[in-house]
Amino acid sequence: xxxxxxxxxxxxxxxxxxxxxxxxxxxxxxxxxxxxxxxxxxxxxxxxxxxxxxxxxxxxxxxxxxxxxxxxxxxxxxxxxxxxxxxxxxxxxxxxxxxxxxxxxxxxxxxxxxxxxxxxxxxxxxxxxxxxxxxxxxxxxxxxxxxxxxxxxxxxxxxxxxxxxxxxxxxxxxxxxxxxxxxxxxxxxxxxxxxxxxxxxxxxxxxxxxxxxxxxxxxxxxxxxxxxxxxxxxxxxxxxxxxxxxxxxxxxxxxxxxxxxxxxxxxxxxxxx
Length: 273
Hints:
Layout: H1 9-28, H2 44-52, H3 60-73, E1 100-106, E2 120-126, H4 137-151, E3 152-153, E4 156-157, E5 159-162, E6 165-171, E7 176-182, H5 185-197, E8 208-211, E9 223-226, E10 229-232, E11 240-250, E12 258-262
Antiparallel strand pairs: 1-2, 1-11, 3-4, 5-11, 6-7, 6-8, 9-10, 11-12
Helix pairs in contact: 1-3
């Protein structure tokens, strides 16, 4: 369908930014009010929310200032990152010489319930047939293309339903020690087979171990006091869909990972999505 007459790319972009940005602001400042909240500057959190909330009348400069204030000054951009403290020189690969390929999955932002933390998952294996000396960009690019074909459909990552059942698949000689928390065996085995296919390793059902805990993962978590504040305990292995986001390779002796595929477009990748 063609764009409507008089379509303004600037107005459309600004509307999309405002719509999605204000959803984040409402969630981030939900403690001061819900959708019926009225802007005010008498309280500290209220003043911050007022400053971050975008308006239809905002200029481009004002839009950028509100983005910068929330993401950089208030630190929202770092809120879901794993923070590393210490010297990078102290980090060594657990298996000398063999590159490690990692796959990151996370929950879609719109599916995260208010007040809940976004669920994620990471799986990895070693390229036991390669070393830091034999792996090349050409080989990495070939691997990236295979990952794209297996883990991406219609420019989006495939989805795995994460839950409380634990599926273990060990094949030490081929570099696999997989631990997947899934909802069904079929889902878990599908991911396992995709990971094995990347190294032409045959799936062996006898290597699969399934552990089903009796503990409920739907019960309301108890509260506890942490650092002087009452907080809810972490829910035991909740059920949620997590989507493949990116894959990267850690190479011993190379301080920066090689990103193979990235559906978030944040880190780039050797192959385009």
